[in-house]
Amino acid sequence: MEGSMAYLLVIVAGLFEVGFATFLKLSDGFSRLIPSIGFLVCAAISFSLLAEAAKTLPIGTSYAIWTGIGAAGTAILGMLIFNDPVSLTRFLAIGLIIGGVVLLNLTGGSHA
Predict the structure, then answer these.
(1) What is the pTM assigned to this prediction?
(2) Crossing angle, helix 59-81 and helix 33-53, to 10 degrees?
(3) How far apart are CA 64 and CA 102, in angstroms?
(4) What is the pLDDT of residues 7-39, one digit of tens each?
(5) CA distance 24 to 38
(6) Is 63 exposed, middle or buried (0-12, 13-18, 19+ CB in 10 A)?
(7) CB within 8 A of 72, min separation 6: which ones?
(8) How many other CB atoms are found less than 10 A from the CB of residue 35?
(9) I need a surface site. Which of 30, 47, 53, 77 has the fewest CB within 10 A?
């Protein structure tokens, strides 16, 4: 697989990670059927795409992008729709996550 396609897959996998975290919250401890199914579907898609991307990209880079998108995206979504606390410190933390992923990506590259 081409490197740019692997990056696209891991980015989409990260977005599905945000989806499964959101559905996890909405499932109320897996006591609500539809959000629980949403969690399972998003998790399966997310892990599958991550596994495919990790065939081409270094696992550290793949995992960092995946968790970075998941952590930052979920934190932002939490502030927007779940009334999570909003503060400058939280935005700084999100910026540090994104910066760390970018820095790791700049030093990682693809492998054969």
Answers:
(1) 0.89
(2) 150
(3) 9
(4) 999 999 999 999 999 999 999 999 999 999 999
(5) 8
(6) middle
(7) 94, 97, 98
(8) 17
(9) 30
